[in-house]
Predict the structure.
Amino acid sequence: MEELRFSNAQRAQVLTQALPYIRQYNGKIVVVKYGGNAMINEQLKQQVMEDIVLLSLVGVKVVLVHGGGPEISDLMARLGKQPSFVDGLRVTDRETMDIVQMVLAGKVNKTLVNLLQMKGGRAMGISGMDGGLIKANMRDPRLGYVGSISDVNIRPVLDLLEKGYIPVISTVGCDDEGNTYNINGDTAAAFIAGALKAQRLILMTDIAGVLRDKDDPRTLISKLTIPEATELFRQNVISGGMIPKVDCCIDAIYRGVESVIIMDGRVPHSILMEILTDEGAGTMVVKGEEDV
């Protein structure tokens, strides 16, 4: 594809058009849940990191919450351990939990921190175990060390934001007995964004957003209130893997987040399109007047 070339005047015009949005989000907290294909594709990963650093440099307080399912499965395969899933959740015995902790809190977390710093940002990586950020209990004995969040201590994240860092959070939690738990990334992001009373939570996924017809991207629903989402659940329009995503959106809003975006992380610079343009990207979920 031929590279687009812009004159200096065109570049200046783009920047001035972004100014109202920069002003709107300056000093506000935006939580980004990052994973899926946007994390696997190296070019997309670079662009996501550039977007986050740019937002940070113009005064947006970005918090990055990440998963790493494919990397966990890859290391398990190399160690000769077969992944097992129940209702879409990874069965996590003690050995698997060790692998999850190594991959999420180690390799993936520090790789993202390094990339952000290479792009000119100031980043600090922490896990849900650090500072008691994510307290958890066993969700279901059939799943092993898969956790349900019981409490969030948001102080470590606020401390990093106040010092000008981009917190990069891996979704591993612990209980008071020292057991560690694998936490669903979307759920962790909803709890963290709610505790921060974030302006926006962005869930990066592998589809465009909520579709009226799952086989037709042109049926994207750009905005949903909670009552409208509830009706789409009833009509089975929201089904399958989209159910827990929208549930997380609703949970985050009830916890104090102003709006939640489900967007396609495979689209280059989708975060900037959402935050700094009037076009937006994906499906925005908001509370709705009936729930105020």
Observations:
- The domain at 25-291 is CATH 3.40.1160.10 (Carbamate kinase).
- DSSP finds ten helices and 14 strands in the chain.
- Residues 57 and 238 are 37 Å apart (CA to CA).
